[in-house]
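TL;DR need structure tokens for one chain.
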Amino acid sequence: MNIPFIDLKTQFSRVEEQVRKNMDAVLEHGAYIMGPEIPALEEKLADYCGTKYALGCASGTDALTLALMSLDIKPGDAVFTTPFTFFATAETIALLGATPVFVDIDPVTFNIDPEKLDKTIEAMKGAENGCPLPKVDGLTPKGIISVDIFGLPADFDAIKAVADKHDLFLIEDAAQSFGGEYKGKKAGSLGKIACTSFFPAKPLGCYGDGGMCFTDDEKLIERLRSHRVHGQGPDRYDNVRLGITGRLDSLQAAALLAKFEIFPEEVELRDKVAATYAELLADIDGLTAPSAPEGYRSVWAQYCSLAKDGEHRKRIQDALAAKKIASPIYYPIPLHLQTAFKDLGYTAGDCPVSENAASRIFAIPMHPYLEKDQQKYIADIIRNA
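>> reply
TL;DR here they are.
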């Protein structure tokens, strides 16, 4: 049975006519950079998330970079984040000369643990509570990037309370969670700035790279717009600050406008696929399937379960591979242990929950067009393994 990990072909068959129509319009008007599709997409997605402003950009990584630049992050600043995420979350902090400070995760949601976050900030302020810190002197706590991992929003009430207590900004890394919800609020509306990605494999993806920032702050949106185009001021040839080339291509916005028309339905279909998996996997010994707490809605960017241990995971992955079913690991090496951050001085054991999850986690196919018989086939392979 051929079961794609992500089925973009079936999706394209649904939107092909509108995608081609929208792209033909771009080819006709010729405004390939910052064409009329950009503000149209920004308005639609800001309205969907419930924010005043949105800013299209070249990638999810650029979205995070722009957010940090607009908040004036610089060398000597500390930004607290999770080690259990894609590299870009912490990479953007370091690229601006600031220091990522890693905080371990909740074992159920895999998102940053608010209690550990508070204790880590207190440790940086001098509390002797045993929380691991980077081996960098003179850091000033400035902000938090909380990640909505695998499509599930983090506990923003608790995280925001910590941010307010310590007077830190809060960025929501919603690269995987666009379409998700937290207590009636959409992902993308939960931080001072929220950032998402339109990488093709995301719940709402384009046909290349793309991203977006969301905010309610008028001053911040103006700074974001400036940083997006080399720090441009009112006069396009007078750059008032440093920036990047972070623009979203018109062709990508055209594709996203077409795909967004079916996106709410796809979110519902993802929910049904996840519910079917939960039922099929519930009785498998040693396997912990993912779940969404009450009041949360995951968009199931990935469907990641925990095996009993590394050996159990290998048996499952080998069995799936034998049937040509992908089961990638998100994420095998937590960020605090990656080579690029070795100078921060973190060691194994500093974030034990993240390290344990990395040793047991694996993903299985997840997309809106999975059929129940395909899911049963996958579940039976796992059970037999």
